[in-house]
Write a structure and sequence with these properties.
This protein is mainly α and 190 residues long. It has a domain of 86 residues: Rna Polymerase Sigma Factor, Chain: A (Orthogonal Bundle). 75% of the residues lie in helices and 0% in strands. The chain contains nine helices and no strands. The longest helix has 26 residues. The termini are far apart. It comes from Streptomyces asoensis. Keywords: Sigma factor, Transcription, Transcription regulation. This is RNA polymerase sigma 70. InterPro entries: ECF_Sigma-70_Domain (IPR052704), RNA_pol_sigma-70_dom (IPR014284), RNA_pol_sigma70_r2 (IPR007627), RNA_pol_sigma70_r4_t2 (IPR013249), RNA_pol_sigma_r2 (IPR013325), RNA_pol_sigma_r3/r4-like (IPR013324), WH-like_DNA-bd_sf (IPR036388).
């Protein structure tokens, strides 16, 4: 592939990198793993025919979302098969201090961790359908392509995930702190 073609493809990919990283981070719960997933997406794109293929793809954003979603599914399945724990500890304790920028930043981080704790209760396909549709507004037709299901099945996956997120049961250990984290997440999401 010529250098000009490399630059063209890299430029198109870079335009989508931030969104891809956000999707991967919500799916995987780890910035390092999200970076790995985005890098694997780049590798797969560059292997699939390079710039010529990049020019032929009508909806590059949709294709890249599909690829990063599948990479994340693979990583989640591998994590479950190895029984890995993605977090070293639970969500940090939240205080009821008056709102200030530092407290707001701590709350945002805690809410993100609380969401990841809840998302970890979902199957990989439910998690992907929920994250793509509910958090990133991806239409069910595109979600269906990522999870290799029909649009109706993708809608059902997201619906099941929503029900499980709303009624997620926490482990008995430190139940009050976990409930507060989930309540804070739901309040922030509203």
């Amino acid at each position: 592939m010529a250098s000009g073609d490399d630059d063209f493809l890299a430029g198109r990919f870079e335009a989508h990198r931030g969104r891809l990283r956000a999707v991967a981070h919500r799916m995987l719960g780890s910035a390092a793993e999200a970076d790995d997933a985005v890098q694997e997406t780049w590798v797969r794109l560059s292997r699939s025919g390079g710039a010529a293929a990049g020019r032929e793809i009508d909806n590059l954003a949709g294709r890249l979302t599909t690829v990063v979603g599948r990479v994340c599914l693979d990583m989640l399945r591998a994590r479950r098969s190895r029984a890995e724990e993605p977090w070293e500890s639970g969500p940090p304790a939240l205080s009821s201090e008056a709102a200030d920028p530092a407290h707001d930043a701590l709350l945002a981080d805690s809410v993100g961790v609380a969401l990841l704790v809840v998302l970890d209760t979902l199957t990989p396909a439910e998690r992907l359908a929920f994250v793509l549709h509910d958090l990133f507004g991806v239409p069910y037709e595109e979600v269906a392509a990522v999870v290799d299901r029909t649009p109706e099945a993708a809608r059902q996956l997201a619906s099941r995930a929503r029900r499980r997120v709303r009624g997620a049961r926490e482990p008995d250990a430190d139940l009050a702190r976990q409930r507060k984290a989930v309540d804070d997440f739901l309040a922030a999401a509203r």
